[in-house]
Design goal:
alpha/beta; three-stranded mixed β-sheet; 8 helices; 15 strands; 25% helix; 22% strand
Length: 300
């Protein structure tokens, strides 16, 4: 991946590659699942066999959409949550930022990802250190100079300050206060209620959006697709854009899917009963896009 490939991108530009961690390497075996799922606040223990099948389907959808996939290896110091690879790092125009997790049980994930990035020659800009916390699910790029960061239980003020300092003055950082919702034990990131699917289109759950931030999006010319109440818990607002209006989402959100398709989006769905619903992580959580680039920009 060249530095030129990292110059311009947003959440909706095509990624040079997508980093994943397969369910078989995150969940390992059924005994590991049984030992961890309660402490990690999973809704129920995933079934490993079904999880592997679901993940194979998810990865195949990404390949069919034209994404190049890179898989993180199995490591002993991380657990079930490591399947949600987005949270331990953030891709930026100047290299990766390694996070410091707001969920203490996930503390080993940034170091494990850092070793994989170093081995692959992927540049690392810096790391968030104590007392700061930052998780990648709270970071949303609108364009190469505009990033939104959710301030909540997983990403604190000091972590956001460190992140802003690493990015420098050329990047506008807009901080969005996140709601208490179900409290610090629940998984809730900015991308739980906001998913850009084009430069001027985003899927949102407006009931939880701060009014000034919702207005800010509209003032930028972003049209909002509102997820119905009954599809919020099934992660209707968590939509992965492979490129503008080419999306992947968890099955079970038919109304949101129809709204996307009415806006010209191509939508692929996967069964996430084991890999998404039980751990509270949709397709954005399962993926770490790398080197987003504007179509037509060379990536040699």
């Amino acid at each position: 991946m060249s530095s030129d490939a990292l110059e311009t991108w947003s959440e909706v530009d095509p990624p040079a590659q997508i980093v994943l961690k397969h369910a078989r390497d995150a969940f390992v075996d059924q005994s590991s699942i049984e030992a961890q799922w309660r402490d990690l606040n999973f809704a129920a223990p995933p079934n490993l066999t079904r999880a592997v099948d679901e993940y194979d389907t998810f990865a195949d959808i990404l390949r069919q959409c034209g994404a190049a996939l890179t898989f993180l290896p199995r490591t002993q110091e991380v657990g079930l949550d490591s399947i949600y690879v987005r949270d331990a790092s953030v891709s930026t125009p100047r290299g990766m930022v390694m996070c410091r997790m707001g969920k203490s049980q996930r503390a080993g994930e940034p170091a494990a990802q850092r070793r994989a990035f170093d081995a692959a020659g992927i540049p690392v800009l810096g790391s968030i250190v104590a007392p700061g916390t930052l998780e990648g699910g709270d970071v949303v790029w609108l364009d190469s100079s505009t990033v939104i960061v959710g301030h909540g239980y997983r990403s604190n003020a000091d972590g956001i300050r460190q992140f802003q300092n690493l990015l420098g003055d050329r990047t506008q950082v807009t901080v969005v206060p996140l709601p208490h919702w179900r409290g610090p034990g629940d998984v809730f990131h900015l991308m739980s209620m906001l998913s850009p699917v084009d430069h001027d289109l985003a899927v949102v759950y407006s009931r939880l959006l701060p009014v000034p931030f919702r207005g800010w999006l509209l003032d930028r010319g972003v049209q909002l697709i509102d997820v119905p109440d009954e599809e919020f818990d099934s992660m209707g607002a968590n939509v992965l854009a492979i490129r503008a209006r080419v999306c992947v989402m968890a099955d079970g959100n038919p109304r949101t899917r129809r709204l996307l398709e009415a806006h010209g989006a191509q939508v692929s769905v996967y069964d996430g009963s084991e890999i998404s619903v039980k751990g509270g992580g949709g397709p954005t959580c399962l993926s770490r896009p790398m080197g987003r680039r504007t179509p037509g920009v060379p990536t040699a």
